[in-house]
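dumping this here before i forget
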Amino acid sequence: MSDEMWVNMGPQHPFNHGLWNLRVRLNGETITAAEPIIGYLHRGWEKMVENRTYSQIVPLADRLCYGSSLSWNHLYCLSAERLYGVEAPTRAKYIRVVALELQRITSHLCWLMAVGTDLGSYTIMTWTIRERELFLDLLCQLSGARMTYNYCRIGGVRSDIPENFERDVNRTLDEFEKRLRDIEALCDENEPFLMRTVGIGKIDAKTAMNLGLTGPIMRASGVEMDLRRLDPYEVYQDMKFDICYATDGDVYARYRVRIDEMRESAKIVRQALAEMPKGPVRVKVPRCPPKGTVACHVEDPRGESLMYIVSDGTERPYRLKVRSPNFVNLSASPAMLLGFKISDVPAIMGVMDMCIGETDR
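structure:
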């Protein structure tokens, strides 16, 4: 008779950050096996878009991830542009980079807000949600929405940046960079936070690569992989920024990478605003694209996001396949959990930065 038992942590559990289930097998308090189970939020997104025109899919792409909707909105438009054989104006590319990096900061702040509550710090949650509001105000000023922005268009962006937007962004970044140091100190000088993150959920670079991890989790294991540098899109090749990485491969390293990324995003936003040229922000595209296929990938806040479109020459795609970074990262969770305690699950999985909307689709 075995002393081990299976425990369901979900599908509704505070650490899940979404509707999914994690089954863990325990020997005492030690995890000996783990099985992530998704499918509770499946909406048939890929099938649904086959019955929409290319322009009608734009707002649907926002709904793939509620924490980083602009990233998916942009990826779809960039993929469609390559299928149509058109290129957005240079000014639109700069605006997109500004919007994407503001979105990256809001996404990472939302992640840290959730992790703060997972690890028992209400102060981390309130401080980060306060800063996130400032960036949501900027994105609302740009797009008119606070969550699903629907700002990118096939061929550019919906509208030019509003008056005084550059001034407001720089003021917000000036204040944010000061407050980020306070948030960083709040975590780094917090003994319970360090006890629950340092040395927990370790995964080495070779294992991370074999499992197909991407994004901050991959870079926290010492792999300097960032698509903005390795396969630049928009105007990232003209931006000066560092690839943020760590070598320890534990929960704390993943936290450090995201903190550093927010600073680099602020640096990119300042450069893009300062170097943004004058000109149009959108070009006209044909009603139907030519027959063919296209694949496009970008560096989402959670990792490598990819879309693969098959066109039959009509106004609707024959097939649109989505590669979610969370779907792949979640499948690697057993390797991070084995040998650790059940009390470590919220820290290990919370730092995963889950978004079930894009994982289940």
